[in-house]
Amino acid sequence: MDGGARATALPNITLYTHEGKAVTFYDDLICGKVVAINMMYAECEGICPIATSNLVRVQELLGERVGRDIFLYALTLQPEIDTPQRLQEYAEMHGVKPGWWFLTGARADIEHLRYRLGFFDLNPVVDGEKATHTGMVRIGNDEYDRWTSASALAKPEQIVATINHVDRCGMRPVGRHSGTLRPAPWHLLSCRARTSAPRPSFLRRTSASWALGPLPSSPVGVTLWPKAAPTCRSLAGLCCSLASVWL
Fold first, then answer.
1. Number of structural domains, the chain?
2. 12-44 pLDDT per residue, tens
3. Domain limits for position 52
4. Dihedral sign, Cα of residue 196, residue 32, residue 170, residue 69
5. Element (DSSP H or E) covering residue 71
6. DSSP reduced 3-state for 149
7. What's the predicted TM-score (pTM) here?
8. Of 53, 56, 184, 231, which shows the fewest CB atoms inside 10 Å?
9. Cα–Cα distance for residue pair 163/62, rounded to 1 Å
């Protein structure tokens, strides 16, 4: 599926970064990139500050890859209150470094985007609670159309491993419990050579199936492959995906 098809699946709405820059969601933030997206709001006193601090550690582990190979985004759930200036203050308070953008926009656009990314619960009562959507991170590689999710409260090394799993230009941990990174096997190839490689059939999706399913409402116990992960289409796909991260 080409970028044009994905652009129709993900809304190309206008958002504003915590630096005050206007961006379009798909064209500027997603197209051809490896991304990690979470939801938050500045007034949140529950999971948000803990998750943000945890993701700051993820940013530190990723180092220079952030803003160059991997892009981090945080979408506010309270766009009416979280102006770019307020998000700037929030980012500074948590020690966020360049390469991670906090985003706001029109309420209707944010809600549409939330659903398209899978940050929703089928129970409307649960879905109406903002905190429900703050405990997960949606991680994807647009170029390869590979998407998964991780708990925002998981160990930073586990979140990095999930990002590495979809980042075919990236690194991976040496062992299951190791924070030491080494080049993945495909790292020896140029990015151009890697992007021309055929993709297994279980990694291909049509635009009709691209809308991501709901993320688990609870982050507890969710690390690399939650039960609701839409990319886990088959047992074979699951085994192959886990092997690519841990072996």
1. 1
2. 999 999 999 999 999 999 999 999 999 999 998
3. 3-246
4. positive
5. strand 70-76
6. strand
7. 0.69
8. 53
9. 10
